[in-house]
Every structure is written in C-alpha cells, then in structure tokens.
Amino acid sequence: MRDEATFRVKAGLAEMLKGGVIMDVVDAEQAKIAEDSGAVAVMALERVPSDIRRDGGVARMSDPAMIKGIQEAVTIPVMAKARIGHFAEAQVLEALEVDYIDESEVLTPADEANHIDKWGFKVPFVCGATHLGEALRRIGEGAAMIRSKGEAGTGDIVEAVRHLRAIRSEIRRLGTLDDMELATAAKELQSPLDLVRQVAAEQKLPVVLFCAGGIATPADASLVMQLGAEGVFVGSGIFKSEDPATRAAAIVEATTHFRDADRVAKASEGLGSAMQSLESRKLDEQQLLANRGW
Amino acid sequence: MVVGVLALQGDFEAHSKMLQDLGADVREVRVPADLEGLDGLVMPGGESTTMTLGIKREGLGDPLRDFVRSGKPVLGTCAGMIMLDREHLGVMDTVCRRNAFGRQIRSFEEDLEIPGIDGTVRAVFIRAPWLAEYGDAVEILASVDGHPVAARQDNMLVISFHPEIAGESRVHELFLKNVAAQ
C-alpha cells in the first residue's frame, strides 16, 4: 500500500540535507549561484533577515511568482517561510509545492498564542528553537526538522552557540534522569512526555537539527557543526558579503570538513569582507527576533 | 571487514549506523585516501547536485571509478544511484531521471518485493529518481508504476529508495553478504 506524506517521509528529506548548507536567496539568479556553490537547498524569501531588520514593517510570506521562478531555476529543494501561526500562508506554500515550509520567527508573527498545526499538511515543516522544550513543542505540533534560532540577520554567532549548547546540554541532562524524574522534566520543559522519553533514550532529537542565525564564515560553520548541528542555514551571510559565490562554496566545504582545521583554514582564505554585522547584545529587546515563538 | 560510506553530504549517518548494527566496521569517506583498504562502499542519498560538486572538489571522481572497477561491492541509494550512472561517474550503464516522482509533496513509502529478500521491503521514496535508460548488462530487480527503482550490474547494487530511513536492514545485509563473499 502506498502512503504519502508520512512523518517518516517528511523527516526523511531533512536526513538527505544533513552535512549541507541551506542558503537564503531572493531571486532565481541567487538560487542558481547557491546551487552551483554546493547548497543542499535554498530558502526563498523577498528580503534576507538583515534587510528585514533594516527596513522594519511587517515581514510576510514571499510573492508566489518569485518562489515559482526559483523552483524553475534549480533542482535542489526549495523552502519558503510562513509567519508563525499563519496557516493560510502555509496553505499557499503547500499549493505551490515548496519542499519545506519554515514557520519562522524572522517574519512578523501572525498569532501570539498558537503555532500552525503542522500535522494537517503534506509538506514538511522546519521550525526554530532556542532550547529543548521549544524544539519538542514544535515536534509535538508536527515539525519534521528543527533549526536553532540564533539571532538572524546579525552576522553574530553568539546566540546560535547559546541555543545549540542549551539544546545539546538539556539532551545530555535527560540521559541522567530516571523515569519519575523524566515525567517532571517533561512538565518543566512543557513538552510531550513520550518525546522527552525518546530523547532521553536516544540522546538526540527525533528529527534532524540544523543551526541558523548569525553564520557568516567557514569557521562559524565548523564551530556549530562541532557543537552538534547536523547542517547549517546561512541567511544574510552569503549574499550580503563581498564575494557571494566564493564564500558560499567555502562555507559548504567547511561544513563537510568541519573537524579538519586545515581544510577550514584553506576554505577561509581570501574570501573578501564578510557581511556587515550587528552585535546581538547591543540590540534593543524589540529588535530581537529569536524570542518570537515560545 | 571495513565498509566505507561516502560522507560528503546526505544521510550517511543512517547508513553507518545500520552497517555498524549489522557488525561491520565503518569508515566515512570524504577524501580519496579514505577509500584505501575498504572492502565495500555505500553511496548514500542526499542532493545529487551537491554530491556531484563535492566529488569534483575532492578529486574523488577517478578514485571512485577505480574502486567500482576493482570489483568490490558497491551499494548506491537514491543520489548514490545517480552518481553511478552514465552522466555522472559513468560506471553503470544507466541514466537516472532525477526527482522523477515529483517534488517532496509526492514523496511516499510502500512495500516492494526484491529478489533475494523474503517477504516485502518497506521502501521510502524521497524526491526519488528512477532509471530512465539502461543497457543489457543491467538487471532490473524492482519497479514502481512501471519504472525501475532497484537494479544490479556486476558488483553494483542500486536502489532509488531508503531502507535505512525505514529501519529496514535486509538490503544492507544482502550487501554485506556480498562484501563477505569477496
């Protein structure tokens, strides 16, 4: 019997992206550059996070015409972002047959209490998380892939490191607890007990974990891979740098060879200037994107 | 018995884990030197465009061709099946059609019969290819909707689906049996 859109099929695509780099692109030309540089997928959006940050206003789902143009330009998977809780945007993206929907805090949230019920969709979802409880709540809602949030559009890796370390150390801690303590941990994490038990036993998330938010250099990619990310998202870091194609290929190389410092060093040579950066700690509370979602 | 898993990108960890659970020693292959002394090789699923670029960047094209031609067992799944065809490494007399079933929304799983394996195998197809063309040396083992999704030629076994995602170990057992018989 044939079964379409099972959770295994949804989470399986993320398995195929492991060890790879997913790049933000705003048009077909950038998508082609990303594909030719070795990206495993592209994220189609009208403005990269650093521009959303600069421009302000309400950030929404992209123009379907732009997404279609990108789908025609490349053969790698095409992802696109919907606002948190905006299930109608997600329905539109499903109708466009994007390969993954990112229910993203980088766009302006549409619902202050609820995330999308992702079980009802055939297209898989990736969601951001700053810690384990948030990740497990998203998986409980049907997310088939998790990315750490970082602080998008800053080029500052510090928040990505904080979130990855939080997720990884909370996973390790669950491994030390007995059954009664796991029930308490589930309550504290505000997460489904069955998922908490699974994470404790397997010492990993039940879905693939990528890192996003602030990656701008090959060494950034190596750092987060060594901290336990299974691949990386790069947003403003590529097409806001001096030489996008060269930097994109270098970040791909460093993601594959993340434990090999000689290769990361070689990949880091002569890339020109990185994106213009913002120090996360100096941003006002209102400017922070990572605390959207809960 | 040491089996290599091409680890440039893709679901190499799922393959490694399955092979280890079946008792094999596994080595991840990222550069040509990693191929030395291997008794068999798995080329995993992933993104075929990315994998093609990675093979070129690492200078792995000729070493991989030499490995296949040495006669040691090779298992290619999904993108790995594409890598072996005429338009990529050119070691198998096949041409793959990429994303042949459609975009992710058309990905599916179903039960397949594979010669040499009792009962059915739960086959997970993710943006999967099929064989669009193949020569006389290629033996087709299974098809879906009339399109070949599993085949064999000499020491190469290729499948366009993912037993490692379904926790289905019998294809890997078959492969390891071939490795042990060398």
Automatic annotation (TrEMBL), chain A:
Q: Which GO terms describe its biological process?
A: amino acid metabolic process; pyridoxal phosphate biosynthetic process; pyridoxine biosynthetic process
Pfam family, any one: SOR_SNZ
- GO molecular function of the protein, one example? pyridoxal 5'-phosphate synthase (glutamine hydrolysing) activity
Q: Does the keyword Lyase apply?
A: yes
Which positions does UniProt annotate for D-ribose 5-phosphate binding?
D24, G153, G214, G235, S236
Keyword Lyase appears in the UniProt entry: yes
List keywords of the entry alphabetically: Lyase, Pyridoxal phosphate, Schiff base
Q: Which reaction does it catalyse?
A: aldehydo-D-ribose 5-phosphate + D-glyceraldehyde 3-phosphate + L-glutamine = pyridoxal 5'-phosphate + L-glutamate + phosphate + 3 H2O + H(+)
Entry's CDD domains?
Answer: pdxS
Positions bound to D-glyceraldehyde 3-phosphate:
R165
Against PROSITE patterns, the record matches this protein to: PDXS_SNZ_2 (PS51129)
Q: Where is the PdxS/SNZ N-terminal domain?
A: 7-212
Q: Which residues form the active site?
A: K81
The record's Gene3D superfamilies line, in alphabetical order, gives:
Aldolase class I
The membrane-spanning stretches of this chain are none
What EC number(s) does this enzyme carry?
4.3.3.6
Instruction: Give, as in the UniProt entry, the pathway in which the protein acts.
Output: Cofactor biosynthesis; pyridoxal 5'-phosphate biosynthesis
Assigned protein family: Belongs to the PdxS/SNZ family.
List the NCBIfam families hit by this protein, alphabetically.
Answer: PRK04180.1, pyridoxal 5'-phosphate synthase lyase subunit PdxS
The job of this chain, per UniProt, is described as:
Catalyzes the formation of pyridoxal 5'-phosphate from ribose 5-phosphate (RBP), glyceraldehyde 3-phosphate (G3P) and ammonia. The ammonia is provided by the PdxT subunit. Can also use ribulose 5-phosphate and dihydroxyacetone phosphate as substrates, resulting from enzyme-catalyzed isomerization of RBP and G3P, respectively.
Q: How does it assemble?
A: Homohexamer and homododecamer. In the presence of PdxT, forms a dodecamer of heterodimers.
Protein name stated in the entry: Pyridoxal 5'-phosphate synthase subunit PdxS
TrEMBL record, chain B:
Task: Give the active-site positions.
Answer: C78 (nucleophile), H162 (charge relay system), E164 (charge relay system)
Taxonomic source organism = Solirubrobacter pauli
* Pathway per the UniProt entry: Cofactor biosynthesis; pyridoxal 5'-phosphate biosynthesis
A single GO cellular-component term from the record reads: glutaminase complex
Task: Report the InterPro entries cross-referenced here.
Answer: Class_I_gatase-like (IPR029062), PdxT/SNO (IPR002161)
- The name on file for this protein is Pyridoxal 5'-phosphate synthase subunit PdxT
Q: Which Pfam families match?
A: SNO
* Alphabetical UniProt keywords: Glutamine amidotransferase, Hydrolase, Lyase, Pyridoxal phosphate
Its subunit composition reads: In the presence of PdxS, forms a dodecamer of heterodimers. Only shows activity in the heterodimer.
Residue positions annotated to bind L-glutamine are G46, E47, S48, R98, I126, R127
Catalysed reactions listed for this entry? aldehydo-D-ribose 5-phosphate + D-glyceraldehyde 3-phosphate + L-glutamine = pyridoxal 5'-phosphate + L-glutamate + phosphate + 3 H2O + H(+); L-glutamine + H2O = L-glutamate + NH4(+)
Q: What is its EC number?
A: 4.3.3.6, 3.5.1.2
Q: Which domain of life is it from?
A: Bacteria
Gene Ontology molecular-function annotations:
glutaminase activity; pyridoxal 5'-phosphate synthase (glutamine hydrolysing) activity
Q: Which protein family is it in?
A: Belongs to the glutaminase PdxT/SNO family.
Quote the function comment for this protein.
Catalyzes the hydrolysis of glutamine to glutamate and ammonia as part of the biosynthesis of pyridoxal 5'-phosphate. The resulting ammonia molecule is channeled to the active site of PdxS.
Q: Which GO terms describe its biological process?
A: L-glutamine catabolic process; pyridoxal phosphate biosynthetic process; pyridoxine metabolic process
